[in-house]
Amino acid sequence: xxxxxxxxxxxxxxxxxxxxxxxxxxxxxxxxxxxxxxxxxxxxxxxxxxxxxxxxxxxxxxxxxxxxxxx
Length: 71
What we know:
This protein is mainly α. The protein is built from three helices and no strands.
């Protein structure tokens, strides 16, 4: 379904904290967290494409990056 379940878990762990305590500091922390994770995912995928080549590209086309059936 997705290639990065651990990063999704981190986001889903922090999301209720953000919703429960909505303020600019928590919003900023969430934005930094999300940006950092997306850059990390891009970096890791570039490495995996270089390491595994076509096999990884096939896997990448069969799965979503972070959100099942969407992204």
